[in-house]
Amino acid sequence: MASVAEYYAGKSVLITGATGFMGKVLVEKLLWSCPEVKALYILVRPKAGQSMKQRVSDMMKCKLFDRVREDNPDFHKKIIPISSELTQPGLSISPEDVEKLSACINIVFHCAATIRFDEPLKHALQLNVIATQELLSLAQRMHHLEAFIHISTAYANCNRKHIDEVIYPPPVEPKKLIESLEWMDDGIVQDITPRLIGDRPNTYTYTKALAEYVVQQEQDKLNIGIVRPSIVGASWQEPFPGWIDNFNGPSGVFIAAGKGILRTMRANNDAVADLIPVDMVVNLTLAAGWYTDLEENILPLSFRKHHVISSFKRNPLEQAFRRPNANITSNYLINQYWILVSHKFPAFIYDLFLRLCGQKPQMMRIFNRLHKAIGLLEYFSSQDWEWNSENMNMLMSQLTPEDRTAFNFDVRQLNWPEYIENYCIGTKKYVLNEDMSDIPAARQHLRKLRNIRYTFNTVLVVFIWRVFIARSQMARNIWYFVVSLCFKFLSYFRASSTLTN
Ligand SMILES: CCCCCCCC/C=C\CCCCCCCC(=O)SCCNC(=O)CCNC(=O)[C@H](O)C(C)(C)COP(=O)(O)OP(=O)(O)OC[C@H]1O[C@@H](n2cnc3c(N)ncnc32)[C@H](O)[C@@H]1OP(=O)(O)O
Ligand SMILES: NC(=O)C1=CN([C@@H]2O[C@H](COP(=O)(O)OP(=O)(O)OC[C@H]3O[C@@H](n4cnc5c(N)ncnc54)[C@H](OP(=O)(O)O)[C@@H]3O)[C@@H](O)[C@H]2O)C=CC1
């Protein structure tokens, strides 16, 4: 059997979602580890006033492609952008491009999706299910297609506790749902969405489950593979440790904690957050293309020992609101208490301060957004799942020893504290674009925050005590008793030290 790199040599690959987090890393890794790959066709749409060409050219300037660029400055010649808006009929690919793709594509990686948890059902269905269907139809026209790899999520079946490497029956026949939603206006769809998604937490996991079923329907006509990553985090090693470019999932949580904004979160301390580095997911995806089978992948990170706070204390973010410190509890009331004391109260004080300085208050608004985001993640942070990963282990055993290194997805090799440290540094450098040389100033800022806190606490204690003493005889008695006790101790130590001298 050919090695993974040999398999991709001379092949033309089609990638959707190549401008996304995972897609970019997939493109980079293919160019780096499979240098003989013939061409990478990427489906891209114009966005935010930028043309498709401009977007692709910006993407290739990204630091992520540094090692590829150094190795081969002409690497961009292998990347062929195809204009496509996935939510449009026929993916809005021109007939000439359809012809071109049909004639040359050997492998398809379908990464594009909306991963927002609050996506309206109609749009999530359009992108995650209908576009997948359209892509499968296109794939059937490809004369030399060898594999169609669909990126799903380990949470597509999160309504189950134990998840096997099988496609479960869909919650509803996708075709019927698409037909019925077609005539409904957005308001009606919004009203019935909770009933439709049932025991799933959001439209994302619901539509990803439907998409898996749609892909499975084509298994007689195409060689399909489904990869189900869990929570995808910053890169472990490739192209360099800590690469991350978004606020999704844990990254937003880490940044909010590092900035001292997030001080409490509802999660099951005994549960694990199944985090997997993006480079491992990409390695597994490429190996799945080589082998074409059904895979999934997880790595447990315990909520109790997450190493995030200690990492940010060593490498602080700039201008933190408060010192990083997070209380993780599964108890609703305790969490609400901390939200009040550690989130809303400081936000209120800070906004009051801003108002007094003639500035616009902003902290309460930031906290409201944070609470919305954290609320959407709570379902995942409060539970535990069990995944079967026999196919993944089998795939690993099929790789040559060299490929096991070049396309490593063995999560047991990961050093957890080191990975989280690089992840936190990655959020600082690549998401927030902060300079590492500012770390001493950021540490100084944390020290200042600590001193403000000590001063504030002392003033508060003295103030409460003074109020208390003024009103209660008993408090006064206790106060005098404590003071006289301290005084006696002091005199005793002074006397005994005089004796020993
Ligand atoms: C110290 C404790 C440590 C504990 C350790 C444990 C960690 C693990 C924790 C929990 C794990 C659970 C994870 C489960 C994952 C499942 C896995 C998957 O299969 S898929 C992928 C998942 N998909 C998402 O993560 C999308 C989630 N995001 C959304 O749905 C939306 O972004 C939402 C609703 C959260 C916000 O929507 P809007 O409309 O209010 O805002 P918008 O347009 O997205 O963003 C506005 C601005 O805010 C930033 N932003 C977005 N999310 C942020 C966040 N979480 N924190 C801070 N800023 C964020 C954005 O970059 C943007 O910035 P600009 O305006 O462009 O400058
Ligand atoms: N991130 C995670 O934690 C996890 C992700 N996954 C899965 O991995 C895959 C990739 O996720 P990730 O890279 O994080 O997601 P991103 O949101 O970073 O990327 C999504 C990609 O889809 C493209 N896309 C979205 N809408 C359209 C459209 N209408 N037309 C054309 N392209 C479109 C985006 O293009 P554009 O740049 O134009 O917006 C982007 O390239 C998804 O299938 C997701 O379900 C699974 C588990 C966890």
Automatic annotation (TrEMBL):
Cellular component terms per the entry's GO annotation: peroxisomal membrane
Organism superkingdom: Eukaryota
MF terms (GO), sorted A to Z: alcohol-forming long-chain fatty acyl-CoA reductase activity; alcohol-forming very long-chain fatty acyl-CoA reductase activity
Fatty acyl-CoA reductase C-terminal domain boundaries: 343-434
Keyword NADP listed: yes
Catalysed conversion reaction: 16-methylheptadecanoyl-CoA + 2 NADPH + 2 H(+) = 16-methylheptadecan-1-ol + 2 NADP(+) + CoA; eicosanoyl-CoA + 2 NADPH + 2 H(+) = eicosan-1-ol + 2 NADP(+) + CoA; octadecanoyl-CoA + 2 NADPH + 2 H(+) = octadecan-1-ol + 2 NADP(+) + CoA; hexadecanoyl-CoA + 2 NADPH + 2 H(+) = hexadecan-1-ol + 2 NADP(+) + CoA
Annotated EC: 1.2.1.84
Biological process terms in GO annotation: lipid biosynthetic process; long-chain fatty-acyl-CoA metabolic process
Compartment(s): Peroxisome membrane
Keywords: Lipid biosynthesis, Lipid metabolism, Membrane, NADP, Oxidoreductase, Peroxisome, Transmembrane, Transmembrane helix
InterPro entries for this protein: FAR (IPR026055), FAR_C (IPR033640), FAR_NAD-bd (IPR013120), NAD(P)-bd_dom_sf (IPR036291)
Key word Transmembrane present: yes
Membrane-protein topology: Single-pass membrane protein
A Pfam family per the record: Sterile
Root EC class: oxidoreductase
UniProt record similarity statement: Belongs to the fatty acyl-CoA reductase family.
Transmembrane segments: 454-472, 478-495
Function: Catalyzes the reduction of saturated and unsaturated C16 or C18 fatty acyl-CoA to fatty alcohols. It plays an essential role in the production of ether lipids/plasmalogens which synthesis requires fatty alcohols. In parallel, it is also required for wax monoesters production since fatty alcohols also constitute a substrate for their synthesis.
Residue ranges of every copy of the Thioester reductase (TE) domain listed in the record: 15-284
Gene3D superfamilies associated with the record: NAD(P)-binding Rossmann-like Domain
Protein name: Fatty acyl-CoA reductase
The species this protein was found in: Oryzias melastigma (Marine medaka)
